[in-house]
Specification:
Layout (H helix, E strand, L loop, with lengths): L9 H8 L3 H8 L4 H14 L1 H9 L8 H18 L8 H24 L3 H21 L5 H8 L3 H23 L3 H7 L1 H18 L3 H12 L4 H8 L3 H27 L5
Pfam families: Sigma70_r2 (PF04542), Sigma70_r4 (PF04545)
GO molecular function, one term: DNA binding
InterPro entries: RNA_pol_sigma-70_dom, RNA_pol_sigma70, RNA_pol_sigma70_r2, RNA_pol_sigma70_r4, RNA_pol_sigma_r2, RNA_pol_sigma_r3/r4-like, WH-like_DNA-bd_sf
């Protein structure tokens, strides 16, 4: 006689046998701090698979799936803490849009680092060639004005391309650094330096004001002209130029500060 026993994971068995997520959250709403934390943790653990599935839906779009999973998990924790049992509806129906919203926000805030606009990619390639040619000819580092003249563009375009180069190179080096287990073990230190650049740039972007972040998105993601950006935020084109210069200088400074901090010897 064949054996038809079903094989159920411990997590699935707990989900079937124990109280529902909604029941746990109702209990958590009146529990003391320690018990509440335990109950909320239980709800989060039960739904980690859901967070992972939602993150995988956005895999292959330029951002690391592990980063997306962490974003989804943090949103799941947020949902568990803010869920209102009295509002009705299942916890999943509440948590899923919360996780989706955070994942989309993560793409909006950081996705431009991975796929710079084609115009900037082309400018970046030309800039690197011309920069090397001028360096060899003059035996010194070319100024931004020299580069702009050689490329027949504005100095602001050179600055944008340099920022694009820092972001793009950080991402591509990160992919190489974490491409296999040997590299993850530390086989290529240069890759980690670029990862730190990307992390510093991401942190700097997060610290921008809402208007500055809007300007960055309009310029780098939507490829709006300075005049178009001026119309959107209600200032002059000249003010937009100054704002972009200030924003990019701040982002570059954040990367440089992070590099200096990472190379400072630790004090025992």
């Amino acid at each position: 006689m064949s054996d038809h026993r079903s094989f159920t994971s411990p997590r699935e068995a707990r989900r079937v046998a124990g109280p529902s997520a909604e029941e746990l959250l109702v209990e958590a709403s009146t529990a003391g701090s320690a018990d509440r934390r335990h109950l909320l943790d239980e709800v989060v653990v039960r739904h980690l698979d859901l967070a992972a599935r939602m993150a995988r839906q956005y895999a292959g779009r330029g951002l690391d799936v592990e980063d997306l999973t962490q974003v989804a998990r943090l949103a799941l924790c947020k949902a568990a803490h803010s869920y209102d049992p009295d509002a009705g509806g299942s916890f999943v129906a509440y948590a899923a849009p919360t996780m989706l919203g955070e994942i989309k926000r993560h793409f909006r805030d950081t996705g431009w680092l991975v796929r710079p606009p084609r115009r900037l990619q082309e400018m970046r390639a030309r800039l690197r060639v011309v920069e090397e040619e001028l360096r060899q000819a003059a035996h010194e580092e070319p100024s931004e004005s020299d580069l702009a003249d050689a490329l027949d563009v504005e100095v602001a375009d050179v600055r944008e391309a340099r920022l694009c180069d820092a972001a793009y190179h950080a991402v591509s080096m990160e992919a190489l650094a974490y491409g296999d287990s040997a590299r993850r073990a530390g086989g290529w230190d240069g890759g980690y330096e670029r990862v730190e650049d990307r992390m510093a740039l991401r942190a700097a972007l997060t610290g921008l004001s809402s208007r500055d972040r809007l300007i960055v998105r309009l310029r780098f993601v939507e490829e709006r002209t300075q005049s178009e950006i001026a119309a959107v935020i209600g200032v002059s084109q000249m003010q937009v130029s100054r704002l972009l210069t200030r924003i990019m200088a701040g982002l570059r400074a954040s990367i440089e500060d992070a590099r200096e901090s990472s190379t400072e010897p630790s004090v025992a």
